[in-house]
Protein backbone atom coordinates (compact mmCIF):
# COMPACT_ATOMS: atom_id res chain seq x y z
CA UNK A 1 0.00 0.00 0.00
CA UNK A 2 1.17 3.54 -0.70
CA UNK A 3 1.93 5.46 2.43
CA UNK A 4 0.01 8.67 2.87
CA UNK A 5 2.52 10.15 5.24
CA UNK A 6 5.87 9.73 3.51
CA UNK A 7 7.06 13.08 2.13
CA UNK A 8 8.23 13.16 -1.46
CA UNK A 9 11.33 15.33 -2.04
CA UNK A 10 10.52 18.49 -3.92
CA UNK A 11 12.84 17.62 -6.79
CA UNK A 12 11.53 14.09 -7.21
CA UNK A 13 9.14 14.90 -9.99
CA UNK A 14 11.78 16.71 -12.01
CA UNK A 15 14.31 13.94 -11.54
CA UNK A 16 11.88 11.16 -12.34
CA UNK A 17 10.54 13.11 -15.32
CA UNK A 18 14.06 13.34 -16.74
CA UNK A 19 14.56 9.60 -16.30
CA UNK A 20 11.16 9.02 -17.87
CA UNK A 21 12.14 10.97 -20.97
CA UNK A 22 15.47 9.21 -21.16
CA UNK A 23 14.55 5.61 -20.48
CA UNK A 24 10.85 5.08 -21.20
CA UNK A 25 11.34 3.64 -24.69
CA UNK A 26 14.18 1.35 -23.63
CA UNK A 27 12.32 0.04 -20.65
CA UNK A 28 9.17 -0.45 -22.70
CA UNK A 29 11.15 -2.57 -25.15
CA UNK A 30 12.50 -4.64 -22.29
CA UNK A 31 8.99 -5.12 -20.91
CA UNK A 32 7.64 -6.07 -24.34
CA UNK A 33 10.26 -8.80 -24.54
CA UNK A 34 9.25 -10.05 -21.12
CA UNK A 35 5.46 -10.05 -21.49
CA UNK A 36 4.95 -10.11 -25.29
CA UNK A 37 2.27 -7.46 -25.19
CA UNK A 38 2.59 -3.73 -25.74
CA UNK A 39 -0.24 -2.55 -23.52
CA UNK A 40 0.71 -4.76 -20.60
CA UNK A 41 4.31 -3.65 -21.09
CA UNK A 42 3.31 0.01 -20.91
CA UNK A 43 1.49 -0.66 -17.66
CA UNK A 44 4.56 -2.41 -16.29
CA UNK A 45 6.83 0.51 -17.17
CA UNK A 46 4.39 3.08 -15.82
CA UNK A 47 4.17 1.21 -12.54
CA UNK A 48 7.97 0.95 -12.38
CA UNK A 49 8.28 4.72 -12.66
CA UNK A 50 5.56 5.17 -10.05
CA UNK A 51 7.50 2.94 -7.71
CA UNK A 52 10.71 4.85 -8.39
CA UNK A 53 8.94 8.13 -7.72
CA UNK A 54 7.68 6.93 -4.39
CA UNK A 55 11.12 5.74 -3.36
CA UNK A 56 13.06 8.72 -4.66
CA UNK A 57 15.84 9.59 -4.01
CA UNK A 58 17.84 6.42 -4.44
CA UNK A 59 21.33 6.01 -3.11
CA UNK A 60 23.68 6.95 -5.89
CA UNK A 61 22.74 8.64 -9.12
CA UNK A 62 23.47 5.55 -11.20
CA UNK A 63 21.11 3.37 -9.23
CA UNK A 64 17.93 4.55 -10.93
CA UNK A 65 18.27 2.62 -14.18
CA UNK A 66 19.17 -0.60 -12.40
CA UNK A 67 16.23 -0.03 -10.08
CA UNK A 68 13.87 0.54 -13.00
CA UNK A 69 15.10 -2.56 -14.82
CA UNK A 70 14.59 -4.64 -11.71
CA UNK A 71 11.12 -3.18 -11.25
CA UNK A 72 10.24 -3.93 -14.86
CA UNK A 73 11.43 -7.54 -14.56
CA UNK A 74 9.58 -8.06 -11.28
CA UNK A 75 6.36 -6.54 -12.53
CA UNK A 76 6.57 -8.47 -15.78
CA UNK A 77 6.87 -11.58 -13.66
CA UNK A 78 3.66 -10.60 -11.88
CA UNK A 79 1.90 -10.11 -15.20
CA UNK A 80 2.95 -13.57 -16.35
CA UNK A 81 1.93 -15.17 -13.09
CA UNK A 82 -1.45 -13.49 -13.17
CA UNK A 83 -1.97 -14.76 -16.68
CA UNK A 84 -1.23 -18.26 -15.59
CA UNK A 85 -3.15 -18.61 -12.39
CA UNK A 86 -5.77 -15.94 -12.03
CA UNK A 87 -8.91 -17.81 -13.03
CA UNK A 88 -7.23 -18.65 -16.31
CA UNK A 89 -8.30 -15.13 -17.03
CA UNK A 90 -6.11 -12.82 -19.04
CA UNK A 91 -7.43 -9.29 -19.00
CA UNK A 92 -7.71 -8.18 -22.59
CA UNK A 93 -4.95 -5.63 -22.35
CA UNK A 94 -2.61 -8.39 -21.20
CA UNK A 95 -3.40 -10.94 -23.88
CA UNK A 96 -0.22 -12.40 -25.35
CA UNK A 97 0.68 -10.87 -28.66
CA UNK A 98 1.00 -14.11 -30.58
CA UNK A 99 -1.28 -13.16 -33.40
CA UNK A 100 -1.06 -13.96 -37.06
CA UNK A 101 -0.28 -10.30 -37.60
CA UNK A 102 2.64 -10.68 -35.23
CA UNK A 103 3.86 -13.68 -37.19
CA UNK A 104 3.68 -11.65 -40.36
CA UNK A 105 5.77 -8.89 -38.84
CA UNK A 106 8.34 -11.22 -37.35
CA UNK A 107 8.57 -13.77 -40.12
CA UNK A 108 8.64 -17.51 -39.63
CA UNK A 109 12.26 -17.71 -38.48
CA UNK A 110 11.79 -15.17 -35.74
CA UNK A 111 8.40 -16.54 -34.76
CA UNK A 112 10.10 -19.85 -34.10
CA UNK A 113 12.51 -18.10 -31.75
CA UNK A 114 9.60 -16.34 -30.07
CA UNK A 115 7.73 -19.58 -29.47
CA UNK A 116 10.85 -21.37 -28.26
CA UNK A 117 11.63 -18.50 -25.91
CA UNK A 118 8.07 -18.44 -24.54
CA UNK A 119 8.33 -22.12 -23.75
CA UNK A 120 11.36 -21.62 -21.53
CA UNK A 121 11.02 -21.27 -17.77
CA UNK A 122 10.52 -17.66 -16.71
CA UNK A 123 13.91 -17.21 -15.05
CA UNK A 124 15.76 -18.59 -18.07
CA UNK A 125 13.88 -16.27 -20.36
CA UNK A 126 14.70 -13.29 -18.17
CA UNK A 127 18.39 -14.12 -18.17
CA UNK A 128 18.49 -14.55 -21.94
CA UNK A 129 16.67 -11.29 -22.59
CA UNK A 130 18.94 -9.35 -20.27
CA UNK A 131 22.02 -10.99 -21.76
CA UNK A 132 21.20 -10.93 -25.47
CA UNK A 133 19.06 -7.82 -25.71
CA UNK A 134 20.62 -5.50 -23.15
CA UNK A 135 24.08 -7.10 -23.42
CA UNK A 136 24.43 -6.96 -19.67
CA UNK A 137 27.30 -8.62 -17.85
CA UNK A 138 26.37 -11.61 -15.73
CA UNK A 139 27.13 -9.59 -12.60
CA UNK A 140 24.51 -7.01 -13.61
CA UNK A 141 22.00 -9.70 -14.54
CA UNK A 142 22.58 -11.31 -11.16
CA UNK A 143 21.95 -8.00 -9.42
CA UNK A 144 18.69 -7.33 -11.30
CA UNK A 145 17.31 -10.81 -10.74
CA UNK A 146 18.61 -11.21 -7.21
CA UNK A 147 20.61 -14.33 -7.98
CA UNK A 148 24.30 -15.19 -7.91
CA UNK A 149 26.55 -14.43 -10.83
CA UNK A 150 27.36 -18.11 -11.29
CA UNK A 151 23.67 -18.93 -11.33
CA UNK A 152 23.07 -16.29 -14.00
CA UNK A 153 25.90 -17.70 -16.08
CA UNK A 154 24.69 -21.30 -15.72
CA UNK A 155 21.08 -20.36 -16.46
CA UNK A 156 22.14 -18.58 -19.61
CA UNK A 157 24.22 -21.51 -20.77
CA UNK A 158 21.50 -24.08 -20.10
CA UNK A 159 18.83 -21.83 -21.59
CA UNK A 160 20.78 -21.40 -24.78
CA UNK A 161 21.21 -25.17 -25.06
CA UNK A 162 17.49 -25.78 -24.58
CA UNK A 163 16.68 -23.03 -27.04
CA UNK A 164 18.92 -24.68 -29.61
CA UNK A 165 17.12 -28.00 -29.13
CA UNK A 166 13.69 -26.40 -29.40
CA UNK A 167 14.63 -24.51 -32.54
CA UNK A 168 15.86 -27.71 -34.13
CA UNK A 169 12.56 -29.39 -33.23
CA UNK A 170 10.65 -26.55 -34.85
CA UNK A 171 12.51 -26.85 -38.14
CA UNK B 1 28.56 -16.34 -31.28
CA UNK B 2 26.76 -19.48 -32.44
CA UNK B 3 23.68 -19.68 -34.67
CA UNK B 4 21.23 -19.80 -31.78
CA UNK B 5 22.76 -16.72 -30.19
CA UNK B 6 22.59 -14.91 -33.51
CA UNK B 7 18.95 -15.84 -34.05
CA UNK B 8 18.07 -14.96 -30.48
CA UNK B 9 19.71 -11.59 -30.67
CA UNK B 10 18.07 -10.91 -34.04
CA UNK B 11 14.63 -11.82 -32.72
CA UNK B 12 15.00 -9.76 -29.54
CA UNK B 13 16.09 -6.65 -31.38
CA UNK B 14 13.40 -7.05 -34.04
CA UNK B 15 10.70 -7.52 -31.44
CA UNK B 16 12.03 -4.61 -29.39
CA UNK B 17 11.99 -2.43 -32.50
CA UNK B 18 8.21 -2.78 -32.66
CA UNK B 19 8.44 0.04 -30.15
CA UNK B 20 9.69 2.86 -32.39
CA UNK B 21 12.38 5.27 -31.29
CA UNK B 22 9.96 8.17 -31.31
CA UNK B 23 7.39 6.44 -29.11
CA UNK B 24 6.58 8.31 -25.96
CA UNK B 25 4.76 7.38 -22.81
CA UNK B 26 1.53 8.79 -21.50
CA UNK B 27 3.56 11.10 -19.31
CA UNK B 28 3.79 11.55 -15.63
CA UNK B 29 0.53 13.37 -15.20
CA UNK B 30 -1.74 11.42 -17.55
CA UNK B 31 -3.25 9.36 -14.80
CA UNK B 32 -3.63 12.42 -12.68
CA UNK B 33 -5.90 13.88 -15.34
CA UNK B 34 -7.87 10.68 -15.73
CA UNK B 35 -8.89 10.54 -12.14
CA UNK B 36 -10.99 13.64 -12.51
CA UNK B 37 -13.22 12.20 -15.20
CA UNK B 38 -16.30 11.73 -13.02
CA UNK B 39 -16.40 15.46 -12.45
CA UNK B 40 -16.10 16.18 -16.14
CA UNK B 41 -18.63 13.53 -16.98
CA UNK B 42 -21.33 14.76 -14.70
CA UNK B 43 -23.23 16.77 -17.28
CA UNK B 44 -22.98 14.12 -19.93
CA UNK B 45 -23.76 10.88 -18.27
CA UNK B 46 -24.22 11.05 -14.56
CA UNK B 47 -27.73 12.00 -13.71
CA UNK B 48 -27.84 11.62 -9.98
CA UNK B 49 -25.03 12.02 -7.49
CA UNK B 50 -25.60 10.52 -4.13
CA UNK B 51 -23.67 11.60 -1.09
CA UNK B 52 -23.25 8.82 1.38
CA UNK B 53 -22.91 9.34 5.08
CA UNK B 54 -20.82 6.59 6.54
CA UNK B 55 -20.62 5.74 10.18
CA UNK B 56 -17.75 4.00 11.84
CA UNK B 57 -17.48 0.28 12.38
CA UNK B 58 -20.13 -2.31 12.83
CA UNK B 59 -23.21 -0.14 12.83
CA UNK B 60 -26.44 -2.04 12.46
CA UNK B 61 -29.17 -0.45 10.45
CA UNK B 62 -32.28 -0.25 12.63
CA UNK B 63 -34.59 -1.41 9.88
CA UNK B 64 -32.10 -3.40 7.92
CA UNK B 65 -33.36 -5.70 5.21
CA UNK B 66 -30.46 -8.04 5.77
CA UNK B 67 -31.92 -11.53 6.09
CA UNK B 68 -32.37 -12.87 9.60
CA UNK B 69 -30.27 -15.96 10.31
CA UNK B 70 -32.42 -19.01 9.75
CA UNK B 71 -32.30 -22.63 8.78
CA UNK B 72 -31.35 -25.83 10.51
CA UNK B 73 -28.36 -25.98 12.84
CA UNK B 74 -25.13 -26.93 11.15
CA UNK B 75 -24.34 -30.59 10.81
CA UNK B 76 -21.08 -32.32 9.88
CA UNK B 77 -19.28 -30.83 6.90
CA UNK B 78 -19.11 -33.15 3.92
CA UNK B 79 -15.95 -34.19 2.09
CA UNK B 80 -17.94 -34.57 -1.13
CA UNK B 81 -16.71 -33.02 -4.38
CA UNK B 82 -17.32 -29.30 -4.93
CA UNK B 83 -20.83 -28.35 -6.00
CA UNK B 84 -19.48 -25.44 -8.04
CA UNK B 85 -17.48 -25.62 -11.25
CA UNK B 86 -13.71 -25.44 -10.97
CA UNK B 87 -10.75 -25.56 -13.30
CA UNK B 88 -7.39 -27.22 -12.89
CA UNK B 89 -4.37 -26.06 -14.86
CA UNK B 90 -1.40 -28.23 -15.69
CA UNK B 91 1.83 -27.32 -17.45
CA UNK B 92 4.61 -25.03 -16.39
CA UNK B 93 5.23 -22.59 -19.20
CA UNK B 94 3.16 -20.08 -21.10
CA UNK B 95 2.86 -22.29 -24.14
CA UNK B 96 2.43 -25.59 -22.36
CA UNK B 97 -0.74 -24.98 -20.39
CA UNK B 98 -3.65 -27.33 -20.31
CA UNK B 99 -6.83 -26.67 -18.42
CA UNK B 100 -9.90 -28.72 -17.63
CA UNK B 101 -13.19 -27.54 -16.26
CA UNK B 102 -14.86 -29.88 -13.78
CA UNK B 103 -18.52 -29.63 -12.82
CA UNK B 104 -20.03 -32.60 -11.04
CA UNK B 105 -19.38 -35.62 -13.20
CA UNK B 106 -18.62 -33.51 -16.26
CA UNK B 107 -15.09 -32.66 -17.38
CA UNK B 108 -14.40 -30.38 -20.32
CA UNK B 109 -11.03 -29.64 -21.86
CA UNK B 110 -10.89 -25.86 -22.12
CA UNK B 111 -10.00 -24.67 -25.61
CA UNK B 112 -6.90 -22.51 -25.85
CA UNK B 113 -7.84 -18.86 -25.58
CA UNK B 114 -10.94 -19.56 -23.53
CA UNK B 115 -10.85 -18.19 -20.02
CA UNK B 116 -12.84 -16.97 -17.08
CA UNK B 117 -16.11 -18.75 -16.13
CA UNK B 118 -18.68 -16.77 -14.30
CA UNK B 119 -21.54 -19.13 -13.69
CA UNK B 120 -23.60 -21.92 -15.21
CA UNK B 121 -25.86 -20.81 -18.02
CA UNK B 122 -27.72 -22.38 -20.93
CA UNK B 123 -26.34 -25.83 -20.17
CA UNK B 124 -22.76 -24.55 -20.19
CA UNK B 125 -20.55 -22.01 -18.47
CA UNK B 126 -20.29 -18.28 -19.05
CA UNK B 127 -16.72 -17.35 -19.99
CA UNK B 128 -14.47 -15.37 -22.26
CA UNK B 129 -12.66 -16.12 -25.47
CA UNK B 130 -9.40 -14.39 -26.23
CA UNK B 131 -8.07 -15.60 -29.53
CA UNK B 132 -4.90 -14.14 -30.98
CA UNK B 133 -4.86 -10.61 -32.24
CA UNK B 134 -5.97 -8.83 -29.11
CA UNK B 135 -9.64 -9.76 -29.56
CA UNK B 136 -11.83 -10.67 -26.61
CA UNK B 137 -15.49 -11.50 -26.31
CA UNK B 138 -17.87 -13.11 -23.86
CA UNK B 139 -19.53 -16.43 -24.60
CA UNK B 140 -20.64 -19.79 -23.35
CA UNK B 141 -18.51 -22.94 -23.19
CA UNK B 142 -20.62 -26.05 -23.72
CA UNK B 143 -19.91 -29.57 -22.46
CA UNK B 144 -18.88 -30.70 -25.96
CA UNK B 145 -16.07 -28.12 -25.92
CA UNK B 146 -17.71 -25.69 -28.32
CA UNK B 147 -17.87 -22.01 -27.48
CA UNK B 148 -20.71 -19.68 -28.53
CA UNK B 149 -19.81 -16.01 -28.42
CA UNK B 150 -22.32 -13.59 -26.93
CA UNK B 151 -22.34 -9.84 -27.41
CA UNK B 152 -20.02 -7.47 -29.19
CA UNK B 153 -16.32 -8.06 -29.72
CA UNK B 154 -13.96 -6.23 -27.38
CA UNK B 155 -16.19 -6.96 -24.42
CA UNK B 156 -15.23 -8.42 -21.06
CA UNK B 157 -16.48 -8.93 -17.52
CA UNK B 158 -19.57 -11.00 -18.36
CA UNK B 159 -22.03 -10.98 -15.47
CA UNK B 160 -25.31 -12.88 -15.27
CA UNK B 161 -28.60 -11.25 -14.33
CA UNK B 162 -30.24 -12.55 -11.14
CA UNK B 163 -32.61 -14.72 -13.24
CA UNK B 164 -29.71 -15.89 -15.46
CA UNK B 165 -31.60 -15.00 -18.61
CA UNK B 166 -29.42 -12.04 -19.47
CA UNK B 167 -25.75 -11.24 -19.40
CA UNK B 168 -24.08 -7.85 -19.03
CA UNK B 169 -20.68 -7.14 -20.55
CA UNK B 170 -18.27 -4.21 -20.48
CA UNK B 171 -17.88 -3.08 -24.08
CA UNK B 172 -14.66 -1.24 -24.86
CA UNK B 173 -15.14 1.89 -26.93
CA UNK B 174 -12.44 4.14 -28.34
CA UNK B 175 -9.82 5.49 -25.98
CA UNK B 176 -10.67 4.75 -22.39
CA UNK B 177 -14.43 4.96 -22.99
CA UNK B 178 -16.84 2.11 -22.53
CA UNK B 179 -20.42 1.07 -22.05
CA UNK B 180 -22.38 -1.77 -20.50
CA UNK B 181 -24.33 -3.92 -22.95
CA UNK B 182 -27.04 -6.32 -21.76
CA UNK B 183 -27.83 -9.33 -23.93
CA UNK B 184 -30.41 -12.09 -23.94
CA UNK B 185 -28.60 -15.35 -23.26
CA UNK B 186 -30.71 -17.58 -25.51
CA UNK B 187 -30.91 -15.36 -28.57
CA UNK B 188 -27.76 -13.33 -28.07
CA UNK B 189 -29.75 -10.22 -28.95
CA UNK B 190 -29.08 -6.90 -27.29
CA UNK B 191 -31.59 -5.95 -24.61
CA UNK B 192 -30.18 -2.71 -23.30
CA UNK B 193 -27.16 -0.45 -23.49
CA UNK B 194 -25.93 2.02 -20.89
CA UNK B 195 -25.04 5.62 -21.65
CA UNK B 196 -21.50 5.97 -22.97
CA UNK B 197 -19.12 6.08 -20.02
CA UNK B 198 -16.03 8.34 -20.18
CA UNK B 199 -13.94 5.63 -18.55
CA UNK B 200 -14.96 2.01 -18.94
CA UNK B 201 -15.86 -0.01 -15.85
CA UNK B 202 -13.51 -2.66 -14.56
CA UNK B 203 -15.91 -4.77 -12.52
CA UNK B 204 -19.63 -5.52 -12.63
CA UNK B 205 -22.10 -6.93 -10.14
CA UNK B 206 -25.81 -7.56 -10.75
CA UNK B 207 -28.30 -8.03 -7.95
CA UNK B 208 -31.95 -7.25 -7.27
CA UNK B 209 -31.27 -3.51 -7.33
CA UNK B 210 -29.62 -3.53 -10.76
CA UNK B 211 -26.07 -3.42 -12.08
CA UNK B 212 -23.28 -2.06 -9.91
CA UNK B 213 -19.94 -1.21 -11.41
CA UNK B 214 -16.50 0.01 -10.49
CA UNK B 215 -14.31 2.50 -12.33
CA UNK B 216 -10.59 2.77 -11.59
CA UNK B 217 -9.35 6.31 -11.21
CA UNK B 218 -5.61 6.08 -10.86
CA UNK B 219 -3.60 8.94 -9.49
CA UNK B 220 0.12 8.65 -9.91
CA UNK B 221 2.68 10.13 -9.79
CA UNK B 222 1.28 13.59 -9.23
CA UNK B 223 -0.87 11.93 -6.62
CA UNK B 224 1.60 9.20 -5.77
CA UNK B 225 1.29 9.77 -2.06
CA UNK B 226 -2.40 8.97 -2.21
CA UNK B 227 -3.91 5.52 -2.52
CA UNK B 228 -5.51 4.55 -5.79
CA UNK B 229 -9.05 5.84 -6.02
CA UNK B 230 -12.04 3.84 -7.21
CA UNK B 231 -15.49 5.01 -8.18
CA UNK B 232 -18.72 3.08 -7.55
CA UNK B 233 -21.73 3.44 -9.81
CA UNK B 234 -25.15 1.93 -10.37
CA UNK B 235 -27.30 1.48 -13.47
CA UNK B 236 -30.63 -0.17 -14.10
CA UNK B 237 -30.86 -1.73 -17.58
CA UNK B 238 -33.17 0.18 -19.93
CA UNK B 239 -32.53 3.33 -17.91
CA UNK B 240 -30.62 6.27 -19.31
CA UNK B 241 -29.40 7.29 -15.90
CA UNK B 242 -26.14 6.19 -14.31
CA UNK B 243 -25.85 6.83 -10.61
CA UNK B 244 -22.60 7.73 -8.93
CA UNK B 245 -22.40 6.52 -5.37
CA UNK B 246 -20.07 8.92 -3.62
CA UNK B 247 -18.34 6.64 -1.15
CA UNK B 248 -14.84 8.01 -0.45
CA UNK B 249 -13.65 4.96 1.47
CA UNK B 250 -14.53 2.60 -1.37
CA UNK B 251 -11.47 0.51 -2.19
CA UNK B 252 -12.40 -1.39 -5.32
CA UNK B 253 -13.83 -4.73 -4.16
CA UNK B 254 -17.45 -5.44 -5.09
CA UNK B 255 -19.72 -8.45 -4.58
CA UNK B 256 -23.41 -8.34 -5.39
CA UNK B 257 -25.10 -11.71 -4.75
CA UNK B 258 -27.88 -12.19 -7.28
CA UNK B 259 -30.59 -13.30 -4.88
CA UNK B 260 -30.19 -10.35 -2.55
CA UNK B 261 -30.11 -6.58 -2.67
CA UNK B 262 -27.14 -6.48 -0.30
CA UNK B 263 -23.69 -5.66 -1.63
CA UNK B 264 -20.28 -6.14 -0.05
CA UNK B 265 -17.56 -3.58 -0.73
CA UNK B 266 -13.96 -3.21 0.33
CA UNK B 267 -13.04 -0.02 2.16
CA UNK B 268 -10.02 1.46 3.90
CA UNK B 269 -9.49 3.14 7.21
CA UNK B 270 -5.88 4.25 7.39
CA UNK B 271 -3.78 1.11 7.24
CA UNK B 272 -6.81 -1.05 7.88
CA UNK B 273 -8.61 -2.81 5.10
CA UNK B 274 -12.27 -3.40 5.67
CA UNK B 275 -15.34 -5.14 4.34
CA UNK B 276 -18.56 -3.16 4.33
CA UNK B 277 -22.00 -4.57 3.63
CA UNK B 278 -25.19 -2.69 3.02
CA UNK B 279 -28.01 -1.82 0.67
CA UNK B 280 -28.93 1.06 -1.56
CA UNK B 281 -31.84 2.72 0.21
CA UNK B 282 -33.64 5.95 -0.59
CA UNK B 283 -30.87 6.98 -2.89
CA UNK B 284 -28.05 6.30 -0.45
CA UNK B 285 -25.79 3.40 0.45
CA UNK B 286 -27.06 2.25 3.82
CA UNK B 287 -24.17 0.49 5.51
CA UNK B 288 -25.25 -2.30 7.80
CA UNK B 289 -21.90 -3.65 8.88
CA UNK B 290 -18.21 -2.95 8.52
CA UNK B 291 -15.41 -5.26 9.56
CA UNK B 292 -11.80 -4.03 9.59
CA UNK B 293 -8.46 -5.75 9.95
CA UNK B 294 -5.08 -4.22 10.62
CA UNK B 295 -3.18 -4.23 7.35
CA UNK B 296 -4.06 -7.68 6.01
CA UNK B 297 -2.29 -8.78 2.86
CA UNK B 298 -5.47 -8.46 0.86
CA UNK B 299 -9.19 -8.18 1.25
CA UNK B 300 -11.79 -9.33 -1.21
CA UNK B 301 -15.51 -9.30 -0.54
CA UNK B 302 -16.93 -12.81 -0.53
CA UNK B 303 -20.63 -12.88 0.25
CA UNK B 304 -23.18 -15.65 0.66
CA UNK B 305 -25.92 -15.89 -1.99
CA UNK B 306 -28.51 -14.56 0.47
CA UNK B 307 -26.39 -11.56 1.40
CA UNK B 308 -26.30 -12.63 5.02
CA UNK B 309 -22.66 -13.56 5.55
CA UNK B 310 -19.41 -12.08 4.38
CA UNK B 311 -16.09 -13.92 4.53
CA UNK B 312 -12.71 -12.31 5.09
CA UNK B 313 -10.53 -15.01 3.60
CA UNK B 314 -7.21 -13.47 4.59
CA UNK B 315 -8.04 -13.87 8.28
CA UNK B 316 -10.25 -16.95 7.87
CA UNK B 317 -13.31 -15.32 9.37
CA UNK B 318 -17.04 -15.31 8.58
CA UNK B 319 -19.11 -12.34 9.73
CA UNK B 320 -22.88 -12.45 10.08
CA UNK B 321 -23.96 -9.10 8.73
CA UNK B 322 -27.10 -8.69 10.80
CA UNK B 323 -25.84 -9.85 14.20
CA UNK B 324 -22.16 -9.05 13.80
CA UNK B 325 -21.30 -12.53 15.03
CA UNK B 326 -17.82 -13.57 13.94
CA UNK B 327 -17.06 -17.20 13.27
CA UNK B 328 -13.47 -18.35 12.90
CA UNK B 329 -13.09 -20.83 10.06
CA UNK B 330 -11.23 -23.78 11.53
CA UNK B 331 -8.58 -24.20 8.87
CA UNK B 332 -5.10 -25.50 9.72
CA UNK B 333 -2.91 -22.69 11.02
CA UNK B 334 -0.11 -23.58 8.62
CA UNK B 335 -2.26 -22.99 5.56
CA UNK B 336 -2.74 -19.80 3.63
CA UNK B 337 -6.10 -19.11 2.03
CA UNK B 338 -5.76 -17.91 -1.54
CA UNK B 339 -7.65 -14.63 -1.55
CA UNK B 340 -7.73 -14.28 -5.33
CA UNK B 341 -9.34 -15.90 -7.16
CA UNK B 342 -11.86 -15.58 -4.40
CA UNK B 343 -13.49 -18.32 -2.33
CA UNK B 344 -16.96 -19.28 -3.58
CA UNK B 345 -20.13 -20.02 -1.64
CA UNK B 346 -21.82 -23.30 -2.57
CA UNK B 347 -25.00 -22.37 -0.73
CA UNK B 348 -26.04 -19.90 1.96
CA UNK B 349 -24.01 -21.55 4.71
CA UNK B 350 -21.07 -23.30 3.09
CA UNK B 351 -18.09 -21.73 1.39
CA UNK B 352 -15.25 -23.33 -0.55
CA UNK B 353 -11.73 -21.99 -0.09
CA UNK B 354 -8.46 -22.89 -1.83
CA UNK B 355 -5.47 -23.15 0.48
CA UNK B 356 -1.79 -23.80 0.11
CA UNK B 357 1.01 -24.30 2.64
CA UNK B 358 2.58 -21.22 4.23
CA UNK B 359 6.03 -20.45 2.84
CA UNK B 360 5.75 -23.16 0.24
CA UNK B 361 8.64 -23.50 -2.22
CA UNK B 362 7.54 -26.62 -4.04
CA UNK B 363 6.46 -26.47 -7.65
CA UNK B 364 3.78 -27.07 -8.55
CA UNK B 365 2.26 -25.71 -5.38
CA UNK B 366 0.13 -28.34 -3.62
CA UNK B 367 -3.32 -26.94 -2.98
CA UNK B 368 -6.39 -28.10 -1.09
CA UNK B 369 -10.01 -27.11 -1.43
CA UNK B 370 -11.74 -26.83 1.93
CA UNK B 371 -15.48 -26.65 2.55
CA UNK B 372 -16.33 -24.57 5.63
CA UNK B 373 -19.66 -24.02 7.35
CA UNK B 374 -19.87 -20.31 8.14
CA UNK B 375 -22.21 -20.95 11.10
CA UNK B 376 -19.99 -23.37 12.98
CA UNK B 377 -16.57 -22.69 11.43
CA UNK B 378 -16.09 -26.42 10.85
CA UNK B 379 -14.08 -27.22 7.73
CA UNK B 380 -13.32 -30.37 5.75
CA UNK B 381 -10.92 -31.13 2.92
CA UNK B 382 -12.77 -31.61 -0.34
CA UNK B 383 -10.01 -31.95 -2.92
CA UNK B 384 -6.22 -32.05 -3.10
CA UNK B 385 -4.77 -30.75 -6.34
CA UNK B 386 -2.60 -28.00 -7.88
CA UNK B 387 -3.39 -24.78 -9.73
CA UNK B 388 -7.11 -24.94 -9.06
CA UNK B 389 -9.60 -22.13 -9.52
CA UNK B 390 -13.14 -22.13 -8.19
CA UNK B 391 -15.94 -20.60 -10.23
CA UNK B 392 -19.33 -19.20 -9.46
CA UNK B 393 -22.34 -21.47 -9.73
Please report which band the strand proportion of chain B falls in: under 5%, 5-15%, 15-25%, 25-35%, 35-45% or over 45%: 35-45%
Our count of helices of chain B gives 3
Q: What's the shape of chain A?
A: globular
Q: Strand share of the residues of chain A?
A: under 5%
> Regions of chain A with pLDDT < 50 over 5+ consecutive residues?
1-10, 85-105
Structural class designation of chain A: mainly alpha
Largest sheet of chain A: none
Fold and architecture overview:
The complex is a heterodimer of chains A (171) and B (393). By secondary structure, chain A is an all-alpha fold. Chain A folds into two domains: 10-89, no CATH class; 115-166, Winged helix-like DNA-binding domain superfamily/Winged helix DNA-binding domain (Arc Repressor Mutant, subunit A). Chain A is built from seven helices and no strands. Chain A has helices at 12-35, 38-55, 63-85, 100-118, 122-132, 138-145, 149-170. The longest helix of chain A is centred in the first third of the chain and has 24 residues, at 12-35. Chain A is globular. Chain A starts with 11 loop residues before the first helix and ends with a helix. Chain B folds into two domains: 1-53 and 111-244, no CATH class; 66-109 and 260-265 and 297-393, no CATH class. Helices cover 6% and strands 43% of the residues of chain B. Chain B has helices at residues 3-16, 30-34, 37-41, and strands at 46-51, 86-90, 98-103, 106-109, 114-115, 120-121, 124-129, 137-141, 147-150, 155-160, 166-172, 178-184, 190-193, 203-207, 210-217, 229-235, 242-246, 250-255, 262-269, 272-281, 284-294, 302-303, 309-312, 317-320, 326-328, 335-337, 344-345, 350-357, 366-373, 379-386, 388-390. In chain B, the strands form seven sheets. Chain B has a five-stranded mixed β-sheet with strand order 1-17-16-15-14. The N and C termini of chain B lie far apart (56 Å). In chain B, 42% of the residues are buried. At the A-B interface, helix 1, helix 2, helix 3, helix 4 and helix 5 of A face helix 1 of B.
Amino acid sequence: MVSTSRPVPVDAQGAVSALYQQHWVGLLRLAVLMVDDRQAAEDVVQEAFAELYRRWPLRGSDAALAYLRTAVVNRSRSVLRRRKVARLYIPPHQAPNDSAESDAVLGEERSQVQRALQALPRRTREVLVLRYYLDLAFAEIAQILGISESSARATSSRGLAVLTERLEELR
Amino acid sequence: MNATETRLRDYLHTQAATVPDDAHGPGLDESGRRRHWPVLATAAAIAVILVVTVTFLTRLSPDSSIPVPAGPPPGPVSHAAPEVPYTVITGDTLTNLHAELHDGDRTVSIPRGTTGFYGRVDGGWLGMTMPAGGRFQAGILYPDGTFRTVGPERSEGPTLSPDRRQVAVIHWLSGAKGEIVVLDVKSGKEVSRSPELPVRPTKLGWNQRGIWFRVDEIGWPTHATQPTQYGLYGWRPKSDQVTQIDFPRYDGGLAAPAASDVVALTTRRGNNRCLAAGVLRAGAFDEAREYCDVAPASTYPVMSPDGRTVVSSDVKLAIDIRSGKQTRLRLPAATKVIAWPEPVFENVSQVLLVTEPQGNNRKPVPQQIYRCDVRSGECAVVLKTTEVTLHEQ
